[in-house]
Amino acid sequence: MIKSKNLIQKGVFFAFAMWLSSRIIICISMLAIAPLLPVPEGGVAATFSWDVFHSWDSVWYQKIVTFGYEYINDGKQYSIAFLPLFPLLIRAVMLTGLPFNIAGLLVNNLSFLAALILLYSWIEERYDSSAARWATATLAWCPLSLFCTVIYTEGLFLLCSTAALRAFDKQKYAQTAFWGALSTATRSPGLALIPAFLIVSFKEKRGVKAYLASFATASGILLFSLYCQMKFGDALAFVHVQKGWRESAGFAGEGWWLMIQQITLGQTIVDSSGIRYIGYPLKFGIISISACFLWRFRKQIGSKKTDYGIFVLWILLWSMAQENLVRITIIYGGVCLSWISRNKIPFVTVLYGFFTYLLIFNTGLTLSVERYVYGIVSLSIALGLIVNRHPRWGYMIMSFFALVLAKFSIIFSQKLWLS
Question: Residue 298 falls within a domain, yes or no?
């Protein structure tokens, strides 16, 4: 009992340390560094204030909390597109007298801390404390964890979805239904939990309770649908309003192909419709050939020098391609990671990841979808298990994460579109 208590305390302390240290990087970047930088084109000057945490989707949540939901089926953008749990919790915290900005930050940040603690506990139970530390660090330091600090839903969704997956994995079906319903009331990718639960229930012959919990997961979004019917006469108002954000659904093949061209040839070259400057593709080619050379002769060079060499080349490539490289890597690298790790992580998390990807690739978008990928906790588990076996790469990845996290924080504080 004493040993178990000590393990729990160590897990909570580690998760808190990862949460605090990564949030400090964000705050320093947004509040101390960004205000000293020149105002970028299309952006605004960052200030030492709560305003740096409040932009883009945050504005919509403030409208919901202040005025309630609005919707007209005219193809324009309305607040009904955003699911209700996050603004409801913010409103509840505001009843204590706190303003919107502080209430929103508290809900998202504390939810994220709870998600990290829960993830650590789950992975330690299934594997060991070393794997739990790496999975927790991966989730905390991923550059997109910025959205778990600003007034967005990422922290809350990670808490609810992780809790639902963990409960189902441990066959605690009342908890599965509760956390699953909260997930679908927070973000639409929560719907990916339902087919994942149903398939595992069938494959493992889990019984009636598992099926009931699977279907109960949909209750969060069904209650919101009932609200939409009662208030606007349209049960699918939150679906129909998506026309205001995108013209069509389906796989955005043209957008992804353009992004790959920008990474390999350079954005300036692609935008000018012709290769007039060979500098960028030449550098890309040298980096690619150098990486292939290092890998081909890795036995002669040695694993340590090979690893560090590839990491340096990666940093050079990122300095050229920037956010497009991060976006492509997170999205399509995540698909590869899910497949490679399919026999190593809980089966329900594998299915949840793939069903979430089906939703993502059917949005008709290339922007913002990496935030949905970050919300797939399965990927942090998978990457944590891999770097647990290869800690040298783990430390290099965490270093890169910290660098990009700081850059993303500065971009967001300047009100520039990030994701």
Answer: no
- Domain assignment present for residue 281? The answer is no
Provide the β-strand partners of residue 7.
none
CB 411 within 8 A of CB 150: no
Q: By C-alpha distance, which of 86, 85, 103, 108 is closest to 155? A: 108
Could you report the per-residue pLDDT of 285-321, keeping only the tens digit for each?
A: 999 999 999 999 989 999 999 999 999 999 999 999 8
**Residue 393, burial from CB neighbour count under 10 angstroms (0-12, 13-18, 19+):** middle
390 phi-psi bin (left φ>0, alpha ψ -120 to 50, beta other): beta
Q: At what angle do helices 377-389 and 391-413 cross, to 10 degrees?
A: 140
Alpha carbons 335 and 349: distance in angstroms, whole number: 13
Q: DSSP secondary structure string, 13-36?
A: HHHHHHHHHHHHHHHIIIIIIGGG
Evaluate whether residue 280 is within a structural domain: no
pTM, entire model: 0.94
Domain that holds residue 86: 2-245+322-413
Q: What is the mean pLDDT of the chain?
A: 92
Residue 134 pLDDT > 80:
yes
- Determine the average pLDDT of the residues in 77-92: 96
In a domain, 305, yes or no: no
Place of tokens 């973000």: 187
The number of distinct structural domains making up the chain is: 1
